[in-house]
């Protein structure tokens, strides 16, 4: 299989035997240059259950197993919505060393505006959001 990018969920890459075995082959080990965990805050949100409940998605709690499957491949974790506490949990779950570099920049941008509008239940959505739909 020839590809430049491989996208997969923790369930697929870790939970499915065929992918787990494929990732461990010398061919894949040579080709994988970087593992990117996008929306890494979901590790905390979905991979950690409460004291009485199992995690919503078990494989998110086991995502650090990628380190043992691909030990020489660097991992980048991306999130724009995690707190400092959540970042520590993410680093721990992904088995980052204490010397790993964390770049924590505010996602706040001057050119992006977030607006909240309360819409009456009986109002037509096109009346409220027509300008937005037309702009797309």
From TrEMBL:
Keywords: DNA-binding, Isomerase, Nucleus
Keyword Nucleus tagged: yes
Source superkingdom: Eukaryota
Entry annotated with the keyword Isomerase: yes
An individual GO BP term: double-strand break repair via homologous recombination
Record-linked SUPFAM superfamilies: P-loop containing nucleoside triphosphate hydrolases
InterPro entries, A to Z: Helicase_ATP-bd, P-loop_NTPase
UniProt similarity note: Belongs to the helicase family. RecQ subfamily.
Official protein name in the record: Helicase ATP-binding domain-containing protein
Species of the source: Magallana gigas (Pacific oyster)
